[in-house]
């Protein structure tokens, strides 16, 4: 990738030759490797390296962005000229903020050399060991081991010069038996912290324990949602914690900020600096991320505000703006749902009759204001009776309001960094929830 | 581009390499969108890179890069080989490819009006005119609209001697009106939700849609939904419009017939399929009038799954999937075709771009038109007609589904009698298709584009095509989504 300062200089020179002063560039260079396995064998194995350069210009309250992955002087000049042309063609927006001025951004390392230097052979060996564990138990393993290495830069002609380097490793495994399956997943900055063998055993154990699943009728149940299930279901509401979404009337928080909406035991923050979190400490315009208390004791308190939203609504930008121009305004990205001290075993012991849910799948919004979500349980769903796990059960479809769910949380587990498939990674606890609505049961 | 592709292929070959292919892809797009009278997005993106796939001792390796000089190509080719060797550390069966002929061809998809030659100003003017029309209705609290143009040129070269140069232009357009009042958010979209209609066409698609004309009706319906009755629960004759039926096909036919999914490749993520191998040519998938094809040929129409060759260099084909109700075919690849007794792949391997591996993906999976008129499809004593998707969900083996639509009407004796809000329906895939009672004729058939189909790890979000005409299904469970 071209030196970021040189890239800005080229873009700035081209823009100035066209009479434009304000230029912002966002650069990235990523290498993503993923070893994928199924039926106890590696079947796909990939590495992709990709650079990206986007140029945004501001002129006369107009803005536009053009992007390329070609890092030659000519390409940078062309993409800058294209951005100027697009901006000139656009409409003036009186609420468009001026280019951001440089400010202090606290830096936090999210880089591990071991992740960055992992090789195809080391990944394949780790996968082989996990497969051998599962195969030895007479089950079939499928999953991924991945590493991502990325560098991002944000610069502008007002002196902003920000850099973020990050590594991330992920391991996910589904272990399948004759009529059941189990799943586990984790993500860590440092590959050495990823306990692939332990996760494989976890998935195997769930497949073994849920063998010969019984069909029980749908209805309202007490459920224990493991952290991945909490993440993927509750995680669906956070797009609404946006000042632009509220202003446009597309957020369930419209008219509800400051009003008790959830149970007393629900507190949620957006905290980029949490030790289990990841991501850059600045937003899409270079504004430093602030810690936000989104929900305090059941009361929605604050939402993310981009510079545009702050101009419109008052208040300060919170460092959650998306790169301009955009349609959504801003987004929270570092969710921490505060937990408690109940282990999942505690929750099971204190449940007369209920369902333990490992994972949820294909979650979609049915209704926007009460946040009714539908989806399926998957890869380890169990019946609990009299404080004991009794057996695996066939998977359910749920239709559940998340607003109601967050009023019915009886117990919380410790928070942990959690990775699912339906939303981005967050720090969340397990939850024991009363009156959870399963509406149908499927055939397995 | 051809020279770079051949140079990369040369680097990828070697005595240990059983097969290699490369795809160099150059793409550009333009996105213009508006929200409530303001321009919310004006952006252009271009990208160029190469993906190199090699097979060594029966194991695959893939490496992709945007560094297209000799050093970059050599490094990527060597990395693909290193990865293939590493894959061999956990291999069970050697991958063997079904035979295929070499092809040398250049193909350019028809595009009557180049969308990139339209001015951004005119794009914005169209969207702002729609926006203004939608918000003339005081009940509309948010109007949004977008135009998306994409052009992709791909050169594929393989070790069997293929050199295939394909260029495709696609266009997407749509808008939505939201109405927020009291404790309810209602929405109507045109011509479809989630961005509208997408086809392998140029700007002519936008002219055909006549977007502005429909805006007053869409706004009126979004606002009227607040006063509409809640859709009842129970079993009803259900009539679906063609766009919703397109998504129904996508989820309950298209995904289950992906042979890699059936064989377990997606077990950890997208899931598996109820269509186990014993069901081929044995399962009654639908009623006798149900005929579904997987058709990537231009003759089928300008779908997002239309091409001349797939990303393994296999020519586009039309495969019967459901024939008079009987399950007759999967989507296959060169590696999997022999498993179902086929001599060659039916050409469904596709990659999102240069940085992703080709996977079995839907091309255009379509329900063929029936023989009934629209009046005959609606001719029921009591039924519910649903239009435009709002939510969709299906289990990881593709049995149990639930869909929500933006709007519905109660049908009595073939006539719309009242508007209904928040409609949902659910069921089991094969039971649903076996309940198909009437399919309207070719006159009402539309080839819809679904631009956001996700599959694979790393995930690849791609476009698929689905042709359908309004159809009727008997005894379908309606309304369970709103009992929470």
Low-confidence stretches of chain B: none
Count of helical stretches of chain A? 10
What is the straight-line distance between the termini of chain B? 55 Å
What is the number of strand segments of chain A?
A: 19
Oligomeric state of the chains? Answer: heterodimer
Global morphology of chain A: globular
Instruction: State the largest interface.
Output: A-B, 96 and 86 residues
The chain-level mean pLDDT of chain B equals 97
Question: How many distinct beta strands of chain B?
Answer: 24
Structural class of chain B, by secondary structure, is: alpha+beta
Global structural class of chain A? alpha+beta
Strand order of the largest sheet of chain A: 3-2-1-4-5-6
Count of separate structural domains of chain A: 2
What string gives the helices and strands of chain A in order?
HEEEHHHEEEHEHHEEEHEHEEEEHEEEE
Distance between the termini of chain A: 50 Å
Largest sheet of chain B: 8 strands, mixed
Percent helix of chain A, as a range, is 10-25%
- The shape of chain B, in one word, is globular
Q: Tell me the strand percentage band of chain B.
A: 35-45%
Proportion of residues in β-strands of chain A: 35-45%
What's the layout of helices and strands?
The complex is a heterodimer of chains A (444) and B (484).
Chain A: H1 4-17, E1 22-38, E2 41-59, E3 62-68, H2 73-89, H3 113-116, H4 120-136, E4 140-156, E5 161-176, E6 181-188, H5 196-209, E7 219-225, H6 227-234, H7 243-247, E8 268-270, E9 292-296, E10 299-300, H8 307-313, E11 335-337, H9 344-349, E12 353-367, E13 372-385, E14 388-392, E15 396-401, H10 402-405, E16 409-412, E17 416-418, E18 426-428, E19 431-441
Parallel strand pairs in A: 7-12
Antiparallel strand pairs in A: 1-2, 1-4, 2-3, 4-5, 5-6, 7-19, 8-9, 8-11, 9-10, 12-13, 13-14, 13-15, 15-19, 16-19, 17-18
Chain B: H1 2-12, E1 17-35, E2 38-56, E3 59-65, H2 70-87, E4 104-108, H3 120-135, E5 142-158, E6 163-181, E7 184-190, E8 197-199, H4 204-209, H5 211-224, E9 229-230, E10 234-240, H6 242-254, H7 259-262, E11 292-295, E12 318-323, E13 326-327, E14 349-350, E15 359-360, E16 365-367, H8 374-377, E17 382-394, E18 400-412, E19 415-421, E20 424-428, H9 429-434, E21 436-439, E22 446-455, E23 460-468, E24 471-478
Parallel strand pairs in B: 4-6, 9-19, 10-17
Antiparallel strand pairs in B: 1-2, 1-5, 2-3, 5-6, 6-7, 6-8, 10-24, 11-12, 11-16, 12-13, 14-15, 17-18, 18-19, 18-20, 20-24, 21-24, 22-23
């Amino acid at each position: 990738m071209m030196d970021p300062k040189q890239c800005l200089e080229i873009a700035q020179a081209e823009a100035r030759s066209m009479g434009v002063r304000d230029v912002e560039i966002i650069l990235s260079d990523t290498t993503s490797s993923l070893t994928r396995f199924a039926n106890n064998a590696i079947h796909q194995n990939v590495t992709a390296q990709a650079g990206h350069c986007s140029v945004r210009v501001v002129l006369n309250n107009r803005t536009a962005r053009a992007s390329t992955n070609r890092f030659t002087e000519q390409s940078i000049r062309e993409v800058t000229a294209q951005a100027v042309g697009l901006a000139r063609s656009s409409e003036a927006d009186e609420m468009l903020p001026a280019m951001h001025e440089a400010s202090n951004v606290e830096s936090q390392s999210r880089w591990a050399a071991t992740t960055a230097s992992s090789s195809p052979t080391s990944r394949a060996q780790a996968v082989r060991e996990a497969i051998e564990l599962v195969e030895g138990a007479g089950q079939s393993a499928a999953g991924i081991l991945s590493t991502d290495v990325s560098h991002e830069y944000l610069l502008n002609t007002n002196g902003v010069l920000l850099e973020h380097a990050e590594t991330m490793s992920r391991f996910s495994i589904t272990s399948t038996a004759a009529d059941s399956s189990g799943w586990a997943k984790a993500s860590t900055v440092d590959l050495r912290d990823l306990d692939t063998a332990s996760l494989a055993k976890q998935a195997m154990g769930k497949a073994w324990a849920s063998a010969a699943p019984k069909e029980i009728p749908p209805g309202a149940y007490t459920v224990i949602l493991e952290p991945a299930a909490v993440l993927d279901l509750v995680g669906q509401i956070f797009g609404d914690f946006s000042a632009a979404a509220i202003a446009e009337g597309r957020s369930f928080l419209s008219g509800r900020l400051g009003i008790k909406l959830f149970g007393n035991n629900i507190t949620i923050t957006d905290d980029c600096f949490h030790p289990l979190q990841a991501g850059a400490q600045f937003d899409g315009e270079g504004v430093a991320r602030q810690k936000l208390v989104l929900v305090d004791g059941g009361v929605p308190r604050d939402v993310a505000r981009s510079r545009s939203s702050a101009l419109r609504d008052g208040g300060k930008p919170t460092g959650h703006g998306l790169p301009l121009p955009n349609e959504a305004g801003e987004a929270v990205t570092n969710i921490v749902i505060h937990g408690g001290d109940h282990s999942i075993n505690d929750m099971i012991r204190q449940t007369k009759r209920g369902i333990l849910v490992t994972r949820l799948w294909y979650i979609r919004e049915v209704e926007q204001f009460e946040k009714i979500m539908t989806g399926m349980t998957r890869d380890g769903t169990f019946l609990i009776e009299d404080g004991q796990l009794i057996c695996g059960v066939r998977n359910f479809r749920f239709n559940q309001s998340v607003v109601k769910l967050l009023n019915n949380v009886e117990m919380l587990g410790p928070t942990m960094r959690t990775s699912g498939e339906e939303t981005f990674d967050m720090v969340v606890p397990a939850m024991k929830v009363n009156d959870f609505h399963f509406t149908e049961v499927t055939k397995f | 581009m051809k020279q770079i592709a051949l140079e990369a292929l040369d680097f990828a070959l070697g005595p240990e390499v059983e097969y290699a292919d490369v795809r160099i892809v150059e793409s550009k797009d333009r996105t213009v969108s508006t929200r409530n009278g303001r321009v919310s997005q004006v952006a252009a993106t271009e990208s160029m890179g190469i993906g190199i796939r090699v097979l060594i001792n029966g194991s695959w390796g893939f490496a992709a890069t945007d560094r297209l000089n000799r050093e970059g190509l050599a490094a990527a080719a060597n990395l693909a080989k290193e990865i293939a060797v590493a894959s061999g550390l956990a291999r069970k069966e050697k991958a063997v490819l079904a035979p295929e002929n070499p092809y040398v061809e250049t193909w350019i998809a028809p595009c009557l009006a180049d969308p990139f030659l339209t001015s951004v100003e005119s794009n914005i003017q169209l969207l702002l005119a729609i926006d203004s029309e939608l918000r003339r209705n005081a009940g509309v609290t948010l109007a949004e609209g977008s135009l998306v143009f994409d052009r992709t040129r791909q050169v594929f070269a393989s070790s069997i001697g293929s050199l295939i140069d394909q260029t495709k232009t696609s266009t997407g357009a749509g808008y939505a009106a939201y109405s927020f009042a009291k404790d309810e958010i209602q929405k109507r979209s045109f011509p479809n939700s989630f961005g509208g209609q997408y086809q392998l066409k140029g700007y002519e698609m936008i002219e055909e849609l006549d977007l502005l004309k429909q805006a007053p009706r869409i706004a009126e319906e979004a606002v009227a939904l607040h006063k509409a009755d809640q859709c009842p629960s129970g079993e009803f004759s259900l009539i679906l419009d063609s766009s919703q039926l397109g998504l129904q096909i996508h989820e309950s036919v298209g995904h289950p017939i992906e042979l890699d999914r059936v064989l377990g490749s997606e077990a950890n993520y997208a899931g598996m399929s109820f269509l186990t191998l014993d069901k081929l040519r044995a399962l009654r998938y639908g009623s006798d009038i149900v005929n579904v094809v997987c058709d990537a040929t231009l003759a089928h129409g300008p779908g997002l799954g239309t091409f001349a060759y797939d990303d393994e260099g296999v020519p586009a084909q039309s495969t019967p999937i459901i024939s008079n109700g009987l399950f007759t075919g999967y989507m296959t690849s060169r590696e999997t075709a022999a498993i179902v007794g086929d001599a060659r792949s039916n050409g469904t391997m596709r990659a999102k771009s240069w940085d992703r591996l080709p996977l079995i993906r839907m091309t255009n999976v379509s329900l063929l038109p029936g023989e009934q008129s629209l009046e005959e499809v609606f001719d029921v004593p009591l039924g519910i007609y649903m239009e435009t998707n709002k939510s969709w969900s299906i289990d990881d083996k593709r049995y149990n589904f639930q869909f929500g639509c933006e709007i519905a009407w109660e049908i009595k004796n073939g006539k719309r009698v009242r508007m209904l809000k928040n409609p949902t329906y659910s069921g089991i895939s094969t039971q649903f298709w076996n309940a198909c009672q009437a399919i309207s004729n070719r006159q009402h058939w539309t080839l819809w584009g679904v631009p956001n189909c996700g599959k694979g790890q790393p995930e690849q979000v791609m476009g698929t095509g689905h042709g359908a005409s309004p159809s009727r299904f008997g005894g379908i469970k309606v309304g369970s989504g709103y009992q929470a």
